[in-house]
Amino acid sequence: MKRVSFNAALRSPVLWFSISAVILALVVATTGPPMPPLAVQRGIGALYRHKYKEALELLTPYAEGGDTTAQFTLATMSSSGWGVTRSDSEAFKWYRRAANGGSRLAQVGIFYKNSRTVTKDDAEAAKWFRLAAERGEAEAQYDLGIMYETGRGVPQDIHEAASWYRKSAAQEDAQAQNNLALLYMRGDGVQQDFAEARKWFGEAADRANAQAMIHLAEIYLNGQGVAPDRIEAYKWYVIASRYCDMLMRKSCPEITRDGDSFKAGLTPDDIRTATLQAQNWKPKFAWVDAR
């Protein structure tokens, strides 16, 4: 099968239509049946064809009328500046209205946790994360885990954090998988288990999570639960460097700062072997190809 780059997908009307259909399905999954009105579906399609004026004209009446899919989509347009002036306050208004209708409750929590538009309120953020997490939203479960691990808005409770990370990780949230693996590495809130840590780091790495990749490199470098393997460690360091440069550039210096320690003791042949293995590796679940 021919590989199509993400940039090519952005330029392909057929693929954009497919992406729009997926986005619509994801939105519907958070709002529940029935399907949004046809005009709202057309508005989402217009948005992903970059016909912003048409999208606004189709979506706004339904958003004002209480359709949560239209409200969520307008919120996303406002927060991203798609066809409108970027406005966190306008985005928050629509996210809050959608949440009051039962859709994407976690977005309100994110605003209370991070935004400069509303007064930061960790307790209010945790409340919205919990509402969404109890509905089964993976991202909200991860966010609630963060709140419990750090003691923001809730009493600090590492066992509760591990519980929410596990629920989110089971739904394939890569960051939750990475954080759960870290707890297993340290024995925080769970019994220390290097094999379980390696498993969850591997799951997150397969979803192109660069932090998990560098942790795998450290596991093989230090022989934590496995025999030390410097070639395997350097392979994961190279992979992590490639993916963090593409997806997490601001974090790259922190993630890949110890490059010399991974290369130390390797022969030129070892480095070539590890580099070739890294070049041939690809994530199982990522929509991007860093090569």
Number of strands: 0
- The termini sit apart by 17 Å
Secondary structure tally, helices: 17
Strand content: under 5%
Helix content: 55-70%
Largest β-sheet summary: none
Oligomer: single chain
**Parts with pLDDT < 50 across at least 5 consecutive residues:** 1-22, 28-33
Radius of gyration: 21 Å
Shape: globular
Look at the structure and give the mean pLDDT.
81
Characterise the protein shown here.
The chain starts with 5 loop residues before the first helix and ends in an 11-residue tail after the last helix. It has helices spanning 6-11, 13-31, 38-47, 52-64, 68-80, 88-100, 105-114, 122-134, 138-150, 158-170, 174-186, 194-205, 210-222, 230-247, 252-255, 259-263, 268-280. The chain has 291 residues and is an all-alpha fold. Among the domains are: 1-103, no CATH class; 104-171, Serine Threonine Protein Phosphatase 5, Tetratricopeptide repeat. The chain is globular.
List the helices and strands and how they pair.
Blueprint: H1 6-11, H2 13-31, H3 38-47, H4 52-64, H5 68-80, H6 88-100, H7 105-114, H8 122-134, H9 138-150, H10 158-170, H11 174-186, H12 194-205, H13 210-222, H14 230-247, H15 252-255, H16 259-263, H17 268-280
Helix pairs in contact: 3-4, 4-5, 5-6, 6-7, 7-8, 8-9, 9-10, 10-11, 11-12, 12-13, 13-14, 14-17
Question: What is the gist of this entry?
Answer:
69% of the residues lie in helices and 0% in strands. It is mainly α and 291 residues long.
